[in-house]
Amino acid sequence: xxxxxxxxxxLGVSRSTSVEDIKKSYRKLALQYHPDRNPGDHTPEEKFKxxxxxxxxxxxxxxxxxxxxxxxxxxxxxxxxxxxxxDAFGGFSDIFGDLFEDFFGGGGGRRGxxxxxxxDLEDTVELELAEVLTGxxxxxxxxxxxxxxxxxxxxxxxxxxxxxxxxCGGRGEVRVSQGFFxxxxxxxxxxxxxxxxxxxxxxxxxxxRVQKTRKLQVKIPAGIEHGSRLRVTGEGEAxxxxxxxxxxxxxxxxxxxxxxxxxxxxxYCEMLIPYTVAVLGGEVEVPTLTGKTVLxxxxxxxxxxxxxxxxxxxxxxxxxxxxxxxxxKVGIDVPVKLSKTERELLEKLAEEHKDKVTSKKGFx
Length: 364
Fold this sequence. Notes:
By secondary structure, the protein is an alpha+beta fold. Helix content is 23%, strand content 29%. The strands form seven sheets. A four-stranded mixed sheet has the order 10-11-17-14.
């Protein structure tokens, strides 16, 4: 008999991992290895049972403490694999609700007629930083599956009848015995509908949906952040058998600006000002998202000082009339070449301040 793997190794967690993270790890493995997702493959099924058994122990405080101390023997008071699986399924039900209701064969009824909700779709739009000030409307073309106009989504040719599925008897699911317990799986013939079609619709080949392109306008609100994801309800793919549509998700990207850097509702930039203005004070023109504005500079402004221009930033989300501020980090523009007059004036100033500077005059 093969030796059992360490439960922490099975779930891919450390011994100090919290119960909540253990639950997350179990959820991921249970979805990956569930028999319904791997029909006919016994290897994932064994991994599913192994993960369930590990979760049953590590999610229980007392059992986990005993396991940490005694290992798989659990201090002489071990649990059967079936009991562990039942315990794990209790947690599994908490995690997924009724996704696999009545997992061990109890209750259950026909699934036919419910149909499947349409798939969600995604698209991406890109804005300039200046366009964030007012928002922008995009014309999108979304390829998606629409309800077939010939069969109105039934998948059946006109005049053709639907009949009860012979494999599941109309329940939409079949039961498969797995050792001590019974699994319920979606019927592979009718895909959970409980009914099958005599003659398929020629337009959609029995699916009830056809591929089309949907044209729509989407307004991106002012103040949107880079990486935001907007949902447009009901603009995904059509559902099957009358089920609801999916949604459309818009991924919003904001291009990097060559001058400004955005942080929340504020924007930041760096700018060189003449050294005379920095010393004496004055006015300079600075760039903004909408053009240019005049910024007053106080005399004696040092390099690196940050000056604020009110309400020249980005709006609050959805509120174009409430903007953040613009912050300008000042640098000193030192001229590389000087005229003869400029040099003489500066040399006199240096002499007055007794600054040791390089002079074009000789040493003698």
